[in-house]
């Protein structure tokens, strides 16, 4: 047990920074080498304030999670009211609660065709763990126990758990953790830039060849983000997803769509699967389902999976499955997106952001500026994306360096003036990096 030794003469920012570096291991940092944190103390819409009084435009929604923006009093009130009514009880077995029931019903109402059931989680990694286990269990129960292989893609990001990390195709995130779960087979990154006009044909040919090599009778599922997130905000080449779906169905391989980043309005649709005209067998969601106000996720399960698994005992779950407070907040969050027409709003601000940044493609340092809806990426041919992230933050704009790409995903409620400020600051920083 430790006690605070901070001086009473320290400012609030200094005290919090001291306590943070003394006490916390942050994700994606070097153990034993803490750096001074930016301690956020307030959020409102697309704006954030830190403990030192600095104001920022949130160009990333933290980690893509706040379509309705920060500081919505309505969501705080919903959480407080639900806590006062029923804060929590387990959803294992035959226990349930009204908010999770109503949320599940709403999710089925807005989901792509073919989705019929919901399994709740606390976040994205748990969702992908669930999806992989469920796909394997379904085929095992249906008398096809050899179907355990999961097809995944280089550049894909699916989380930090056992199966979710094993299916993540970013080497630096997997290094040092020892043997991961077996049965993952890799496909190329679905990126048009390195493949040219024939990208879709090349990628589909590869998919068919890999299935033939492995044997369709051994493959349970294909997992993929409709638009790569951490892998560089990469939309697929034209026509890719409908052709992938056709190949998978022809070979009785389940299709898991990882929509942790892309769902809840980011593409102008509730789900990017709808945007691309496909109907996955399993859809994994989190982040935007509650706008990050409480940890929440959901795995949406389709009829093909339910038929295969009919009668199977699903010995799987998490303590806070279907948490009533998180469910109530998620339901209210979806209502805000719907009531305020934020999906259409997101298309408007996303188009403004992409149009404003497109001229950067004229710079030798930039390989491509791309985006769908409010999911935007600036891929570098050369240069340092970390310097752009740091420089933008110094000028009050938060963007994220993800490998050789600057990624952005602002709240759907962001103003045009804030979009223009992001464009101006990022443009200056990219030019400085070149």
Describe it for me?
The protein is an alpha/beta fold. The chain is 39% helix and 17% strand. The chain contains 16 helices and 15 strands. It has helices at 12-23, 61-64, 73-85, 98-110, 124-141, 162-166, 171-174, 192-195, 199-214, 240-250, 272-275, 303-309, 324-339, 342-357, 385-394, 416-433; strands spanning 40-44, 47-50, 55-58, 115-121, 149-153, 184-187, 219-224, 254-258, 282-285, 297-302, 366-372, 375-380, 397-398, 400-402, 405-408. The strands form 3 sheets. It has a 7-stranded mixed sheet with strand order 4-10-9-8-7-5-6, with helices on both faces. The protein has a 4-stranded mixed sheet with strand order 1-2-3-13. α5 (124-141) crosses α12 (303-309) and α15 (385-394) crosses α16 (416-433). The longest helix has 18 residues, at 124-141. The protein starts with 11 loop residues before the first helix and ends with a helix. The mean pLDDT is 96.
């Amino acid at each position: 047990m430790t006690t605070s030794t901070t001086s009473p003469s320290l400012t609030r920012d200094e005290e919090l920074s001291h306590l943070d570096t003394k006490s916390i291991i942050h994700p994606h940092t070097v153990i034993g080498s803490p750096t001074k944190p930016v301690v956020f103390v307030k959020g409102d819409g697309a704006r954030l304030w830190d403990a030192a009084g600095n104001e920022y435009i949130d160009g990333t929604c933290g980690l893509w999670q706040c379509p309705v923006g920060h500081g919505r009093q309505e969501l705080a009130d919903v959480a407080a009211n639900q806590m006062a009514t029923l804060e929590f009880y387990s959803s294992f077995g035959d226990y349930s609660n009204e908010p999770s029931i109503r949320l599940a019903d709403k999710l089925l109402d807005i989901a792509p065709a073919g989705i019929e059931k919901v399994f709740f989680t606390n976040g994205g990694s748990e969702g992908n763990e669930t999806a992989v286990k469920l796909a394997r269990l379904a085929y095992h129960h249906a008398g096809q126990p050899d179907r355990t292989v999961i097809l995944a893609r280089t550049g894909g990001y699916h989380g930090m758990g056992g199966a979710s990390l094993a299916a993540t195709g970013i080497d630096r995130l997997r290094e040092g953790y020892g043997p991961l779960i077996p049965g993952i087979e890799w496909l190329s990154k679905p990126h048009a830039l390195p493949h040219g006009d024939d990208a879709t044909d090349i990628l589909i040919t590869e998919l068919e060849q890999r299935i033939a090599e492995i044997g369709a009778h051994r493959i349970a599922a294909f997992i993929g983000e409709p638009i790569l997130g951490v892998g560089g905000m990469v939309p697929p080449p034209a026509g890719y997803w409908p052709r992938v779906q056709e190949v998978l169905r022809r070979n009785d391989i389940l299709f898991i769509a990882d929509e942790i980043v892309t769902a809840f309005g980011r593409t102008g649709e509730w789900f990017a699967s709808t945007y691309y005209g496909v109907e996955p067998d399993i859809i994994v969601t989190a982040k935007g389902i509650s706008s990050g106000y409480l940890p929440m996720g959901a795995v949406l399960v389709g009829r093909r999976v339910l038929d295969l698994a009919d009668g199977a005992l699903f010995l799987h779950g998490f303590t806070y499955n279907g948490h009533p407070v998180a469910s109530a907040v998620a339901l209210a969050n979806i209502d805000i997106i719907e009531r305020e027409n934020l999906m259409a709003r997101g298309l408007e601000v996303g188009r403004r952001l992409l149009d404003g940044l497109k001229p950067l493609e004229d710079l030798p340092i930039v390989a491509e500026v791309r985006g769908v809806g409010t999911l935007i990426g600036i891929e570098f041919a050369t240069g340092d994306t970390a310097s752009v992230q740091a420089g933008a933050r110094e000028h009050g704009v938060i963007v994220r360096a993800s490998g050789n790409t600057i990624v952005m995903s602002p709240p759907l409620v962001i103003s045009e003036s804030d979009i223009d400020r992001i464009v101006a600051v990022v443009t200056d920083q990219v030019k400085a990096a070149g």
